[in-house]
Amino acid sequence: MKGTLSLCAVLAAATSIAPAASAQMISDSFIIPVVAHTSGTGTPPTYWVSDVAIHNLRNDTVQVGLVYFPFDHTNDWDFTFPVTLTLTARQTLLIEDVLQTKFGITSNSKGALNINCEKDFFPSNPGQCDLLVTSRTYNTGSTAGTYGQTVPANELLWNGSTTPSYIAGARNDDRFRSSLGIFNISLNPITVHYRFLGAGAAVLKEGSADILTASGRQWLFSQLGIGKVQGPITVELWLDPADITPDPCAADVITYFMAYVSKVDGNPDGTGDAEFLLAVPTQMPPVGYDCPD
Question: Which domain holds residue 230?
């Protein structure tokens, strides 16, 4: 089914839902900000894969499309769904190692995943198909178990206004290592500014990153110039003023991004257990959600 992904349509299903920051959501379109399939490239050698769970809340059969947006690569929002699934009434589907099993990816890759059942793309679907979606990214490289993190598919944590987003609880010390990821949910490249704050509000590092269209990037804190720091680190992020949508209520497409921190216990030794921290915007609901009819 070929169509143009309307970012307004992607967001529309969430406008009537209270903005619970990290709860699971019911919608017909989701973006999971990062999924992965890696082979021994982490520290120590880690083998990260992502599972995705999709539940159909309807008493109808629904068609669901999946699109993968690899990081560090210009992607296009005009697409034919390369993967389509059929979920019967009330069915739950678990897709293990989604990048390999559904997209045939066996090399090192990470990116974002869109899961979509909108009627615009699947005319046989009911007018509002209701899905619950979540994912887990975990390291399969340890004989002790598969340590990992839940990565929520939450559509209310967009940043696209003049207000910043924040991530608290990052660590980068003798035990923990953290990575920052940003995904660009817009039709053009954007620039996102970041500021790292130590426990006493001292600025540890400031900078900016250019993010390609419908793509993302992920860096270890050390790659951004953050050394080992005692205590928690807070990350502040904001969209470059040149990229802000001037009148979001009059625009067909609004410039948004999502950001996260992945914190792993192991630098390099430790359990390998991981936490996923999704950036929360200070403007809730996000810009463009509360426009008059």
Answer: 2-281
